[in-house]
Amino acid sequence: MGFRIAIVIIAVTLISYWHIMSNLELQVVEQLNKYITERGQYESNLFLLAEDNHILLKKELLWQLKKLDNEEPKAEFEHLFAKSPDGITRNRPELFDGTRQAGVYIG
Asked: What are phi and psi of 89, to 5 degrees?
């Protein structure tokens, strides 16, 4: 009698273990699928933002080139940028507008 009860307990334990592990595996797969989808959307949004920024930069650069017209580019460059004591060429702070211009750092 005790032997039969032990076999039933072992069988029920194995079935319960299998059931729990199957459910856990399904939950993990679902969570991974959700994570992958959300991460893909996040990364896609970053690239869309970069694409938008690229379009804005292109428009701004074209506007700046049209504004220069036939002026001497070297004189304009020296007006906008200054070489610091460490040898790095940077935007002149008094002329730099970070909302309309790209920052320059030439080493």
From this structure: -95, 125
Integer-rounded Cα Rg, in Å, for the chain is 32
The residue among 73, 106, 75 whose CA lies nearest residue 90 is 106
Q: Quick one: which of 68, 76, 107 has its CA closest to 90? A: 107
Q: What is the DSSP string of the chain?
A: -HHHHHHHHHHHHHHHHHHHHHHHHHHHHHHHHHHHHHHHHHHHHHHHHHHHHHHHHHHHHHHHHHHHTTS-HHHHHHHHEEE-TTS-EEE-GGG--TTTS---EE-
Tens of pLDDT, residues 54-105: 999 999 989 888 887 776 778 878 888 899 889 899 988 888 888 888 888 8
Q: For the whole model, what pTM was predicted?
A: 0.46
Backbone torsions φ then ψ of 91, nearest 5 degrees: -60, 145
φ/ψ bin of 69: left (φ > 0), alpha (ψ from -120 to 50), beta (otherwise): left
